[in-house]
Amino acid sequence: MMIALWILTLGLLGLWSLSAWGVHALLTLDASRLGDLKLLVDQIPYGDVIGAWIPGWQDLLRMTIDFTQVALGWVGGAAPVVVWIVWTIGALTILGIGALLSGLIVMIRRSAAPSRAAA
């Protein structure tokens, strides 16, 4: 049980680290590179079909690109620090929960073990 708990804990820690690395890579992306996406909005395949289901989707997509550019420009150099602080808090939480559950397993095993003094 203990091995399964720590395998699960380390797996979650690995996924948490991978997601933090991905967010870091996205937030450190140059915001000016997103300007090229506006030109590609008109070239999305089946745009007329999408437009039938979601009217004004191209304008919404362009507005989202503008918002993302502004957000990436605003976050700027603080992004790596913020991401790694959040990663540290999450990693410590995952490890703390693993340690807490590990202690709980030990306590349950001790209380469920048969008493040798009674025999």
In short:
This protein is mostly helical and 119 residues long.
Verbal overview:
The chain has about 120 residues and is mainly alpha-helical. Helices cover about 80% and strands about 0% of the residues. It has helices at about 1-25, 35-40, 45-55, 55-75, 80-110. Helix 1 (about 1-25) runs antiparallel to helix 5 (about 80-110) and helix 2 packs antiparallel against helix 4 (about 55-75). The radius of gyration is 25 Å and the shape is elongated. The mean pLDDT is about 85.
Could you outline the blueprint of secondary structure elements for this entry?
Layout (H helix, E strand, L loop, with lengths): L1 H26 L7 H7 L5 H7 L3 H19 L3 H34 L7
Distance between the termini: 28 Å
Structural class: mainly alpha
Give the SSE order as H and E letters.
HHHHH
* Helix share, percent: over 70%
Give average pLDDT, whole number: 87
Quickly count the helices: 5
Uncertain spans: none
Report the C-alpha radius of gyration, rounded: 25 Å
Q: Work out the number of β strands.
A: 0
What is the 3D shape?
elongated
Quaternary state of this entry equals single chain
Largest sheet: none
Proportion of strand residues: under 5%
